[in-house]
Every structure is written in structure tokens, then in C-alpha cells.
Amino acid sequence: MFNIRTDLAIEAKEIYENKSKNTIPGVEVYKYKENDVKVTEVKIVNCDGEEAMKKPKGTYLTLDIPEFTPYDLNTMDEVSEVLGKTISSVINLDKSMTALIVGLGNWNVTPDALGPKVVSKVMVTRHLKELVPDQIDENIRPVGAVSPGVLGITGIETGEIIKGIVEKVKPNLVICVDALSSRKTDRVNKTIQIGTSGISPGSGIGNKRMELSEKTLGIPVIAVGVPTVVDAATLANDTIDMVIDDMIDKSQKGGKFYTMLKSLDDEDKLKMIQEVIDPRLGNIIVTPKEVDMVIDSISKVIANGINLALQPALKLNEIERYLN
């Protein structure tokens, strides 16, 4: 499988199948719909699946978000409810257990600020359960939240910070929220992935840090992410593909030029693009120009989804009343 940067399991599956023309061994796929939200469940069940997908064993659920504007509160709430239900399906907590929400990323860089923005909107209750237990509903689960920053700001590995907090606070579950990288531009800011195998901060932009997973922290780790960027070489590759498809449509079928276009190898083409772009422009990633407004909206959707999953005794309007 040629090296196209993506954090999405559904895209890794598509790339493998397009390249090999075969189904992936050790990978199970299920598709269903919740209201207007399409959900794809990709399960990597053995070592063959890990090797083919280049991802650890676990369940990866992808939600395709319907088109919405920042003012379309009904659609945003609908997606939050589906997300909450989806997260609930992969966690196993009773009301006394503590959850820790970790907002990964750099709050100074808009496409990477998803995690910190989500943390600013989650329902934090651990301190209330400890300090004023008589004034809070017994069905409310204790939840803590932290935005640890990035290595370039703190000088400390994010994994080391989270490991120290986990050892001190002793939560029963960690939910990490991070910005991801996509293979396709039409999935940028329009897809939510929930994974049960943890996450490596920075992997989407080729800057892999210490893994956050049950193996490293000793407790279950759920990763929630949205692709906010796409690699420039991948974008150029897609553009060239569209140009080639258009030229093929206009070329005489069976002619030399048609045959040459059809025989272009994906791996060689991508390598050629990277060799042209990297020396001149460096390792560039691309994000939509309206990303600041989108991140504000999508962070609210994810925060409310997490709130619903962790506080099943409350409805969305009750959660929002608490936050306001």
C-alpha cells in the first residue's frame, strides 16, 4: 500500500482494497444509519488485519456528518445524540466511575485546536462530586478534563503528562479528542472517528508522539477525532487524477495517449508529486479557509456527544443549562 497519509480506518481500508483488488484479511465491516447520520464500523480482529491496515486491533466507528451550518442547531444536536450513542456502545462504566477527557493539540493553531475547544465545552463534574456531593444529582458521573498542550509549548511529552495525571487521579476511562488527517478533501471537517485502540498524538501530520492507549496507561482509552487537514501532495494527486480522468474521457479509446494515461501507476505518481512539492514548499498540509468557524461548531457537537455518553441520566437541554 503506497504511503498516503490518513488517520481514518475507513480510508486505510479503501486504499488497501483499491490497490490489492481484494478484501482485507482480519477486518470486518458493518454499515448502518442512525437518523440522517451514516455510520461505518471497521473492526480489526487479528494480526493480519493490523498488518494490512497499519493500525492496531480494535473497533473504529466513522460517522459521516450531514451538511450543516453553524446556525443549524437541530442538525448539530442530532449528530451529538448519534455520537453520544456511538461512544456509549464502546464504553463500559457505571455512574460511580470517573472519566478523564483529554483535549490534544495546539490551541494556538486553529486546525489543531479541536481537542482544547472540546475540553472547554465538556461537562466537568469531578470537583463537584468531591466538594458539594449533597448539591449534585447522585446519577451524575464524575468527569475531569485537561488540555495538556503540545511538546513545543510545554517541553514535556503529552503522553508523560497524561500518564502522570492518570496515576494521580485514577480515572476508569480516558477519552482523547484530537484533530486528524484525511486522505480525501470531502471528508475534511465532515467525518468523526471513534476508536477503541487509543491514539498517537501528532501522527496525522507525521509527527508521532508517545502512544496513549490501554497498553501505556493501564485503563481503556477511547479516541475521538475529526480530520481537519489533508496533505498537500495528496491534494495534488487528487487534482491530477481528475485532470487525467477528464483527458481520458476526451481521448480516443484504445489510442496511444489513452493507453499511456490509463497505465500511470498511483505509487509512482504520488512519489513524483512529493519529489516536486517537498524541496520547493516543504511538508505542507492544507485546511479549508473557514476552518475557524467549523472548529467552533464541530467542537460543540463532539463535546455534547461526549456529555451525553458520560451523563446518560441527563438530556441535552439539561446539559446545556448546566454549562450555561
Automatic annotation (TrEMBL):
It comes from Clostridium oceanicum. It comes from the Bacteria. InterPro entries: Pept_HybD-like_dom_sf, Peptidase_A25. Residues 1-7 form a propeptide. This is Germination protease. Autoproteolytically processed. The inactive tetrameric zymogen termed p46 autoprocesses to a smaller form termed p41, which is active only during spore germination. NCBIfam families: GPR. Homotetramer. It catalyses: Endopeptidase action with P4 Glu or Asp, P1 preferably Glu > Asp, P1' hydrophobic and P2' Ala. Gene3D superfamilies: HybD-like. Its EC number is 3.4.24.78. It is an enzyme of class 3 (hydrolase). Initiates the rapid degradation of small, acid-soluble proteins during spore germination. Belongs to the peptidase A25 family. Keywords: Hydrolase, Protease, Zymogen. The keyword Ion transport does not apply. Pfam families: Peptidase_A25.
